[in-house]
């Protein structure tokens, strides 16, 4: 039986307000609202499950109607929740305000309870974690739990990945000991806050993280594509030229595509092409997940975006 990818971190109710026109401050703006299940760890787990990759999600649910709804979404997609927590209180919610071009204007995070994913809880799930092919944590997870997962990764040889999420949660990783980490996936805004002030250029920032003992730095540059850095080489790939409908979840989808490639035994170069292909598909729909495409169809679409 294939080993699951285990994702640790946020599951949230995503409420997205899509501005009909460019957003104006201090006045009423027309918008269309969508409600989906979100959170970085959930988005990655959900997308992988839809692409027939076995996956477990360790997250926190409220014992409210939103929590029941989020669980049903996971179960329907095929995401297993053996290590997740149900707490007294409201489920977490992410409220995003999107401009008319689909870009994020601002967002609010409420009722999140990421602090409940403690080292003690992870230790209680050690037998489950040992079954993983890859471990992934979003940076909403506490620094103590991230450190526990890193030490567990080094002890077991299971590769560990950190997704920084956004600038505020990424900042706490700046002084963390990340020696032995398999992969970190910052974008151009998150990379600088992971590094010291003396690393003021992208190349210096990448080199500083590599010197910390991180095996791979995967830098996302939006419409300019991405670059995967290691001590030996750098792999760069341009992003497909598409019309963006909604930018939500594109980074999560990219990492889902990369992990799908890894689960299929593909090279890093092939994994990045697959990652960009999935991200492009997500950018052309509303929401953070695509459900209209199978694994086989996704693999076929690589040649659509990268014909050579």
What can you tell me about this protein's structure?
The structure is a single chain. This protein has 308 residues and is α/β, with parallel strands linked by helices. The chain has a domain of 117 residues: UDP-N-acetylmuramoyl-L-alanine:D-glutamate ligase (3-Layer(aba) Sandwich), CATH 3.40.1190. It contains eleven helices and 14 strands. The strands form three sheets. An eight-stranded mixed sheet has the order 4-1-9-10-11-12-13-14, with helices on both faces. Strands 3-2-7-8 form a four-stranded mixed sheet. Strand 5, helix 2 and strand 6 form a beta-alpha-beta unit. Helix 9 runs antiparallel to helix 10. 42% of the residues are buried. The mean pLDDT is 94.
Beta-strand segment tally: 14
Output the radius of gyration: 18 Å
Distance between the termini: 35 Å
Low-confidence stretches: none
CATH architecture of one domain: 3-Layer(aba) Sandwich
SS-derived structural category: alpha/beta
Sheet with the most strands, sense and barrel status: 8 strands, mixed
* Mean pLDDT over all positions: 94
The number of helical segments is: 11
Question: How helical, in percent, are the residues?
Answer: 25-40%
């Amino acid at each position: 039986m294939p080993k699951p990818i285990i994702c640790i971190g946020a599951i949230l109710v995503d409420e997205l307000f899509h501005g009909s026109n460019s957003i104006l401050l201090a006045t009423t703006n027309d918008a269309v609202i969508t409600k989906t299940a979100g959170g970085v760890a959930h988005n990655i787990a959900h997308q992988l499950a839809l692409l027939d990759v076995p996956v477990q999600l360790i997250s926190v649910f409220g014992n409210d109607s939103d929590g029941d709804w989020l669980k049903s979404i996971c179960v329907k997609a095929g995401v297993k929740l053996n290590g997740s927590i149900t707490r007294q209180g409201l489920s977490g919610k992410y409220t995003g305000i999107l401009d008319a071009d689909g870009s994020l204007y601002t967002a609010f995070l409420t009722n999140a309870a990421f602090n409940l994913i403690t080292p003690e809880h992870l230790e209680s799930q050690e037998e489950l974690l040992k079954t993983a092919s890859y471990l992934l944590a979003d940076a909403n997870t506490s620094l103590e739990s991230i450190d526990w997962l890193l030490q567990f990764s080094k002890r077991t040889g299971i590769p560990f990945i950190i997704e920084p999420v956004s600038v505020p949660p990424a900042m706490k990783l700046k002084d963390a000991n990340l020696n032995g980490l398999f992969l970190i996936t910052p974008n151009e805004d998150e990379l600088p806050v992971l590094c010291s002030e003396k690393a003021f250029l992208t190349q210096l920032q990448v080199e500083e993280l590599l010197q910390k003992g991180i095996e791979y730095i995967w830098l996302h540059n939006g419409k300019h594509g991405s670059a995967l850095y290691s001590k030996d080489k750098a792999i760069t790939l341009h992003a497909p030229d598409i019309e963006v409908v909604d930018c939500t979840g594109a980074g999560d989808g990219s990492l889902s595509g990369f992990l799908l490639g890894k689960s299929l035994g593909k090279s890093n170069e092939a994994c990045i092409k697959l990652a960009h292909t999935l991200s492009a598909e997500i950018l052309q729909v509303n929401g953070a997940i695509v459900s209209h495409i199978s694994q086989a169809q996704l693999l076929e679409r690589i040649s659509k975006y990268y014909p050579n």
